[in-house]
Every structure is written in structure tokens, then in C-alpha cells.
Amino acid sequence: MKKSFMMLLTLVFVASIALAGCGSKAETKTTDEKTPTTDATQTPTEPEKKSEPFSITLRHIQVGEPQKNRLAILQDVVKKTEADVPGLKIELDGVEDNTNRNTKLPAEMAAGNVPQIFDLFGGTKDAQKYAQAGKLLDLTPIIEELGIKDQFMDLSAFSVDGKVYGLPIGSSAEGMYYNTEIFTKYNLTAPKTWDEFENILATLKSNGVTPLAGFAKDGWAAAMLPNSLWARYAGPEFIAGLKDNTSDWTSPEITAAMTKLDEWNKKEYFVKGQLGIDYAGRIGQISTGKAALMFDGSWSSSSFADPKQAGDVVGKIGFFFLPPAPGGKGDQTAVNGNSSANGYGFRADLNENELKAAKAFIKNMYTLENQEKGLLTDNTLPSMKLPKESTDKVTDQIVRQVTEGMSAAGALFPVFDAFVTSEVNTAIEQNVQKLFSGKITPAEFGQNVAKAAGK
Amino acid sequence: MNKALRNPAIYILFIVPSLILYFLFFIYPLITSVYYGFTDWDGLNNPQFVGFDNFVKLFEDADFLHSILNNIYFICFSVGIQVPLIILFALLIGSVKRFQRLYKTTVFLPSILSTSVIGILWGFIYDPDMGLLNRFLGLFGVDTIYWLSDEKTAFLSILITNAWQWMGFYIVLVLAAILAIPKELTEAAAIDGATGFQQATKITVPLIMPIISVVIMLSIAGAMRVVDIVIVMTKGGPAGSTDVMASYMVSRAFSYGQYGYGTTIALIIFVFSLVLTALYQIAFNRKASEGVEY
What we know:
- The termini of chain A are far apart.
- By secondary structure, chain A is of the alpha/beta class.
- Chain A has helices spanning about 1-40, 70-85, 95-110, 125-130, 140-145, 180-185, 195-205, 220, 225-235, 235-240, 250-265, 280-285, 305-310, 350-365, 370-380, 390, 395-410, 420-435, 440-450; strands spanning about 55-60, 90-95, 115-120, 160, 165, 165-170, 175-180, 210, 290-295, 315-320, 335, 340-345, 410-415.
- Chain A folds into 2 domains: about 50-170 and about 340-385, 3-Layer(aba) Sandwich (D-Maltodextrin-Binding Protein, domain 2); about 175-335 and about 410-450, D-Maltodextrin-Binding Protein, domain 2 (3-Layer(aba) Sandwich).
- In chain A, a hairpin with a 2-residue loop joins strand 4 (about 160) and strand 5 (about 165).
- Chain B folds into 2 domains: about 1-35, no CATH class; about 50-290, MetI-like (MetI-like fold, Orthogonal Bundle).
- Chain B has helices at about 1-5, 10-35, 55-60, 60-95, 100-110, 115-125, 130-140, 150-180, 185-190, 195-205, 210-225, 230-235, 245-255, 260-290; strands at about 40, 50.
């Protein structure tokens, strides 16, 4: 008797644990089943009808001081979207850019639990890879319905087989920022030729000013300047050729470009200890006068308009693209311009309600007003075709110099990371760092990357 | 009651839940890892079976071989420098009469902090321009040292930080063993004219050998699986020079999306740890059986 009682007790105990484990799952299932039915009766024409509340998660990367203007635009859009879709609650989930792009999102993609809306980069190792694996929502019907498809400048980085899987929030360009005050002090001006440029670096160095900001702890940041050097020495065709892996990494031009980088590094033109400084440390180097120039993307220009981040150098920063390289191949007037970088992607298996939310989000986010707002308040170059009267409103000196430089350019070349495989990307990032640390020679750089590219 | 407990079915009932969990979270992942280790997998598409390609690639990968070397340095530092210091500090704290609890708490404090906090904290200390360390060395006219950016000093800086974090925990372990030694033994030795040093080396240390053995084994295991402090402090940099096996695995699998290759590294770490711990167990158990007892 006692024995069977004990057995029973134990069984109940074990069963209760097992059942407790199943509990929440069963619960979610019932709510899941419920929502579509309420949804079916829900039409936009009868908003007074009480709608079943539901929430979606929106992963964004607008965290920290430099991103505050971008966050404000996003919050506005979220508010509007919530008002448009009855019952919708959007949970904002802010994650730092690099962590989201390279750690969190890939893991979530593998596990199949990505948020409904998330920040997404274009290119082969992001949007296109996920799209090919069937993880992203095809946005083509939505943007066609909203009539915004033709308003984007370029959606190729987010497209696979003519279908669009993500929408860029802005565009960007990479070039050299410089401290105008330091330049005036040493009688320097923005360079028109390569010799002038090298002269600037040498003059600053000889006067005890570190010419170039350094932040090579983050591999992707370390590879920004090399990208433009490759385009100067080996021509914009080199970058374009990365798309179908026809570019030759072991060519003398690439070796020459890396030799130049190596030379600058050996002459200590970069801030000392740059391999231990992460990307976030760059603004401080310019604002404290530790370095006079910084090679970075146009997205950083908003930081130089904010006294909280840039301190005394607000209004004292200029921008130029690298001048033509002597003996460089191809169009030397071409500058870096990325018609799209990051934007938003949507999970492939959205339910009916979530789809409505996604549609409303796209409608509210991708408007010319927001593009203009981004350009004027946040210095984000537009990803949609803005009319001239909008771009004419720009007063920020850096943005003007960026856009003028881009419109004067013969052509635009993109950044390599949108085209190469993740193996090649890894090899580039690591070998640039190794070159900076003196572990490899410029020629070895090309050989190592070529090996990763399967050549 | 007793009858019920004599029934093996009862025991099985109790064990089954934990066995299920153990299987689910340990055995099953282990088996799937072995499978994924032989595939080329990006985490999204179907894994492609590639045989021993990953293993061949791994042992030709200079960066990975360098990370193994770093793990070995880590073990040497832990066992060769950290453990003697742990014993020394434990002996010192064990012999003080006043404020013993204060010392105990103080040395233990770092091990309750999270590694991220410690990594960032020491990042400030090592900062080349404003850091405490360089400021202090600057008083003696030492030039700026780029602790975490220079290949020569970066790994040492991590080792020191890691030692600072974990020594307190082991000191408390050893201290507990020291305080458990019957007072009569040391008192008798003192009456016989043994000096403090002789008491420590001839009586205390031989008696706490079993706990020291545990500390050494934990240090080896800790050094094999170290990863967080490296990621927080240097991300494996400058230029991969401070990567240990586990941080190399994390960067390969998660940052660069080479899940198959990353799993291969994980398997190698597993095998290495297994072999090392087994070797140590065999070597030390033989020695410990000849140990002193009271």
C-alpha cells in the first residue's frame, strides 16, 4: 500500500514537472489560433471595433549618442505605425550595430527566431544570403502596392532574382575628414593631388601632429581606407570585379596600394596603438586634436555637428575624397559611394497581422519627408531620390562637401564587403590588421586574400 | 517507507528527469557537434558533408595553431605562477591574527564581479593615455606602453587580469584547508623549534596537497576554456595575437558564419581538455596516494 502510494506520489511529481514545461507552449498556441480569427473580422474601415492586441519586435541599431537623431526618426515612425494598425504594439529592441550584424542576427537566422522587423545590411553576406535561404520576406508586392519601388536609387544589394528583400534607410560615402583649424595653422588646404595629400601627412607629422586617426581593433573599420586605396591604385573595376570574383588580389596595383598603407603605418602616421582602439574611439581622437584627419563614412558627420560628442571641433571639420593616385588604373575621379548600406528586413513567415504591421511600417518609414529629415537632422545621405529643393536645404558643411564631391565624381565605387564571401571578408579584415601589426608584407596580404578567394 | 526506497523503480523515476535533461543538453549536442564538425555549414543552408577537410584545414591554419600556443601559455601561467602565489597568499592570510576576515573578503571580491566588468575596468587601467598603470609608470619616466595594442604586452596583460579575477577564489579554497589543519600539529612543530617557513613547507603545504591538486586541476580546466576575458579586452587582437582556442572558435562560428569549421574547433577543444585532465589525473593521483595525512 505504502509502496504504491509512494510510486503514485512520485509519478504525480514527475508528471507535474513535465506538464509545467509544456504549459506555456500550449498557452501561446491558443492565442496564436485566436488572433487570425479576430483579424478576419477586423477591417480598417471599422476602427471603433475593439481589436485583439498583438505585439511585434523591431530590432534596430540606433543605440548610443551618435545615433540619437536616427532613433528619433524611428520612434516617430513606430508611433505612426502603431496608430495605423489597431492593437499593434511595437517593442523596440536596440542592439549595437556590429553585434547585431555579425553575432546576434546570424545566430537568430540559424535558429529561426529573428524579430519580425530587423536592421539588415545589403550584400552577399547579409541580405542576399538570408534571402537565398528563404529567411526574408519578399517586399516586392508591398513596395509596388505603395508605389515606392522606383523611388529608391538602388536596391540591387537587397535583391535576389529581381525580388526585393530589404529596404535601405540611407546611402553613404567614405572619405577623409579633416580638422580645418589644424590645417589653417600649418597652411594646408584640402588636397587636389596625391602629392599634396602626402605632403599634408608629412607636414603634420614633422610638426608633431599625428596625421591619421586609428581604430583598427574592429576589422571592418580597419578595412575602410584600404578599400579606397584599392580603387585608386587598381581602379574602380577592381572593386566591381569582386562581385564575380574576377579581381586579382595579387596584382602589382594591390601590392602597391598596400605598400602605401604599410609605409604610412611605418612612418607612424596613424594614432599609436590603433590595433587596441575600437571604432567608437575615433570621434574622440579628432575632437581632442589627437589626430588631424580621419578616414570614415559620411554617417559620422552628424557626430561632428553635436557639441556633446565633438566638443570644440563642431563646425571646424571638412571632408574630401582621396585625390587621384599617380599612375593609378581606371577612373581616378571615381569616389566611394554606397547607394545602400543598412536598412530593414522582415521575417519570411509573418502572420496576417504582422504583415499589416510590416506594411504600415514601410509606408511610414520610407517617405521622402523622412529621407529629407534624415538628411537635414542626421546627415544621412538619402537612399531614395530626393528632389533638388530638399537637397538644397542642406546647411551642414560636411554633408555639402560629401554630396558635391559625389556629384563631381566620374563614377562611384562601392565597398567590398557587399560582394565578397564571408571567407574573403574574414581574410581581408584579419590581414589588414596583420599588415598594421607588421606580421605580413604588402605582397603577402594579396596572397592571403587570394587564397581565401579560392585562387 | 523503507520498502518503497528499496524498489529500484523509484530510483529510476527520480533519475529519469535529470537523465533526460543531461541527454538533451549534453549528449545530444555532443553527438550533433561531431556531425557538424565534418560539414561545411553556414548556419542557414543544409550542411554539406566534407569529411576530414575541416580538420586538415584547422591544423594548417597558422592562426589556430597560434591560439593553441596561447592556451598553453595560459596553462603555464596559471599553474607556474598563479598557483604558487595562491599558496603564498593563503599561507600569509592563514597566519595573521587580526583582520583575517577582512583580507579573506578583500581577496575574494574580484571573483564575484562579472568578467565584462573586470575586462572594462582593467581596460581603463591599461589605457595608454589616461590609464592608472601608465600614469604610475610615467612617474618614473617610463615611456607610454600600449598594453593592449602591442603584441608583446597584450597577452600578458590579459593573463594578469585573469589572475587578479580568479586568485581570490582559490586563495579562499586553500585557506579553508589550512584552517582545517589541527592546531596541535603546528604548535608541536613550534615547540620543537620549527620556524614559520619550516612549518609552512614541512607541515602545512604537504597536508593541503589534495586541495592544491584540485586547484591545479581547476586552473588547467579554466585555462582551457577561457574566452570571455579575451573577447572583452582585446577581441583576440592586436591582429589575432591574443586569440585562444575558444575565442577563435567564437569569431569563426559566430562572427564569420563558418559554423561547421567552428564546430570542428569546439571538438578539438573538447578532446584537448579531456586528454589534459586525464593526464593530470593519472599523474597526480599516483603522487597524491603517497601524500601525508593526519
